[in-house]
Design goal:
66 residues, alpha+beta, 3-stranded antiparallel β-sheet, 1 helix, TA_system_antitoxin, TTHA1013/TTHA0281-like
Length: 66
Protein backbone atom coordinates (compact mmCIF):
# COMPACT_ATOMS: atom_id res chain seq x y z
CA UNK A 1 0.00 0.00 0.00
CA UNK A 2 1.29 3.45 -0.86
CA UNK A 3 0.00 6.56 0.89
CA UNK A 4 0.88 10.21 0.55
CA UNK A 5 2.39 11.73 3.69
CA UNK A 6 2.77 15.46 4.26
CA UNK A 7 5.67 16.48 6.49
CA UNK A 8 6.08 20.03 7.77
CA UNK A 9 8.37 21.57 10.35
CA UNK A 10 6.45 23.28 13.16
CA UNK A 11 7.36 26.47 15.04
CA UNK A 12 9.07 24.44 17.79
CA UNK A 13 11.33 22.65 15.29
CA UNK A 14 9.55 19.28 15.25
CA UNK A 15 8.63 17.54 12.02
CA UNK A 16 4.90 16.83 11.89
CA UNK A 17 3.63 14.10 9.55
CA UNK A 18 0.04 13.72 8.34
CA UNK A 19 -1.67 11.16 6.11
CA UNK A 20 -4.55 13.01 4.39
CA UNK A 21 -6.20 9.75 3.24
CA UNK A 22 -6.44 8.51 6.85
CA UNK A 23 -8.39 11.03 8.96
CA UNK A 24 -6.70 11.69 12.28
CA UNK A 25 -3.46 9.90 11.34
CA UNK A 26 -0.68 12.21 12.55
CA UNK A 27 2.74 11.80 14.12
CA UNK A 28 5.90 13.79 14.69
CA UNK A 29 9.61 13.51 15.28
CA UNK A 30 12.66 15.57 16.16
CA UNK A 31 14.07 14.79 12.70
CA UNK A 32 12.40 14.11 9.37
CA UNK A 33 13.70 10.53 9.51
CA UNK A 34 12.15 10.03 12.95
CA UNK A 35 8.85 11.55 11.78
CA UNK A 36 8.76 9.11 8.86
CA UNK A 37 9.42 6.12 11.14
CA UNK A 38 6.75 7.36 13.56
CA UNK A 39 4.13 7.95 10.87
CA UNK A 40 4.68 4.40 9.58
CA UNK A 41 3.82 3.11 13.06
CA UNK A 42 0.83 5.46 13.21
CA UNK A 43 -0.44 4.16 9.86
CA UNK A 44 -0.16 0.56 11.05
CA UNK A 45 -2.05 1.42 14.23
CA UNK A 46 -4.71 3.34 12.32
CA UNK A 47 -5.27 0.40 9.96
CA UNK A 48 -5.46 -2.08 12.86
CA UNK A 49 -8.09 0.03 14.63
CA UNK A 50 -10.18 0.39 11.46
CA UNK A 51 -9.90 -3.36 10.77
CA UNK A 52 -11.10 -4.12 14.30
CA UNK A 53 -14.08 -1.78 13.87
CA UNK A 54 -15.10 -3.26 10.53
CA UNK A 55 -13.41 -6.56 9.64
CA UNK A 56 -12.40 -7.10 6.02
CA UNK A 57 -14.79 -9.42 4.19
CA UNK A 58 -13.16 -10.53 0.92
CA UNK A 59 -16.43 -11.35 -0.81
CA UNK A 60 -17.59 -7.74 -0.32
CA UNK A 61 -14.41 -6.18 -1.71
CA UNK A 62 -13.51 -5.07 -5.22
CA UNK A 63 -10.29 -3.56 -6.59
CA UNK A 64 -10.47 -0.17 -8.27
CA UNK A 65 -7.63 1.54 -10.13
CA UNK A 66 -7.62 5.25 -10.79
Amino acid sequence: MKLHVIIEKDEEGYYVAEVPALPGCFSQGKTEKEAIANIKEAIEGWLEVMEAKSPFVPEHAIAVSV
